[in-house]
Amino acid sequence: MSHKLIILGAGESGIGAALLGKKQGYDVFVSDGGTIKDNYKQELAVNQISFEEGHHSWDKVLGADEIVKSPGIPEKSDLMKKVREAGVPVISEIELAYRFSTGKKIIAITGSNGKSTTTALTYHIFKNAGLDVAMVGNIGVSWARQVATEPAEYYVIEISSFQLDDIKTFKPNVAILLNITPDHLDRYDYKMENYVASKFRIAMNQTAEDAFVYCMDDPEIMQHLAKQPIYSASIPFTIMKPLKEGGFVDKDQLHIDVNGEPVIMSMYDLSLKGKHNLYNSMAAAIAARTMDIRKEKIRESLTSFESLEHRMEYVATVKGVDFINDSKATNVNSVWFALESFEKPIVLIMGGIDKGNDYSAIRDLVKEKVKAIICMGVDNTPIINALSKDTPVMISTASMHDAVTEAFNQATKGDIVLLSPACASFDLFKNYEDRGRKFKEEVKGL
């Protein structure tokens, strides 16, 4: 009998899992409660994979030998309750891809903020070192798709806590945990410790020959480590004090001390600016050293890396005002990182769909650095209520055109106009990419 694999959810990870399952000879069926995008439907048809959309056929779903669940489906949904009652084994797409990646080197990166940047930077170092490497996961293509269509020797994976919730045997050679701040708590019964435990699953199958790379300056990480030991080789990074092994900053020099041969460079030579990027750069460099990439290559890559689109992306300078697109900042913590990166006065454009944000975390930085906040959204009251006392100017707008025009009016030569919304974008835009692109168009039109 062939192995019946049911894929729940037909986004990028679901389609990747379907392609890989089919390639491995499984009997694959894809079921999505919503609508499936046309390009994905075409792919399924071309590969002769049957699917349904708009509903789930229970007999089929519950008759599976195994289910691959999309990271977007919460455990509390009726669908998952039925699946768990029926006792059908559930795995994530990450687990499926891992099953068919024996002998490959895997660097997995998780954390509440900075995942995409660190993943892209790590990939950049490996690529520059001439390795056969692919960048997969939450950034770009799903890992399962890559394994099915174009397997590589090294995988650099950006991985979310939702994807870690359904792993069984997944074991990265290097696991990186950048930081843990409250995000997505609705999925973890509003208990921070559940979310923390979920992030730590990245190391749960690791053994002594694997590496666990973590930020020593993160209180949540340190608390958890004190309670629950890790079995892999732990390599910390910090900006607080020198270390014997790991990554640290001392007298404006970045030090990476792993596997002999220390990598030392001036932090001013890093292409990524800001305190949070010191952490991201150290994590990526440590991953490279664990794989014995030469220090010259690491230094060269950390200097030449171009940051990601929509993540602290420089757009243009108009009449002495710098415009920065940080549309990917969809939570308050990301905005804190952005504000912390700049020394010049800031005109901040923020707003969108507020997921119950607590703006108190950025109040001090707003007082210190922000000369005006331009709200952009259908409902700007939460931001106005939370921050109007902390900045001299607060203006409400309901379109990107008006937001950019108002911001430019408020800015003078030497200022920065920063789009760092702290919110989801669905009230006015398709997604954060669409929001970032509209921002760039408006800036170019000034």
Describe this structure in words.
Keywords: ATP-binding, Cell cycle, Cell division, Cell shape, Cell wall biogenesis/degradation, Cytoplasm, Ligase, Nucleotide-binding, Peptidoglycan synthesis. Its main location: cytoplasm. This is UDP-N-acetylmuramoylalanine--D-glutamate ligase. InterPro entries: Mur-like_cat_sf, Mur_ligase_C, Mur_ligase_C_dom_sf, Mur_ligase_cen, MurD. The protein starts with a strand and ends with a helix. The chain is α/β, with parallel strands linked by helices. α7 links the parallel β7 and β8. The protein is 36% helix and 22% strand. The relative contact order is 0.09. It has 17 helices and 20 strands. It has three domains: 88 residues, Rossmann fold (3-Layer(aba) Sandwich); 210 residues, UDP-N-acetylmuramoyl-L-alanine:D-glutamate ligase (3-Layer(aba) Sandwich); 132 residues, Mur ligase, C-terminal domain (Protein-Tyrosine Phosphatase, Chain A). Strands 7-8-6-9-10-11-12-13-14 form a nine-stranded mixed sheet. The chain has a six-stranded mixed sheet with strand order 15-16-20-17-18-19.
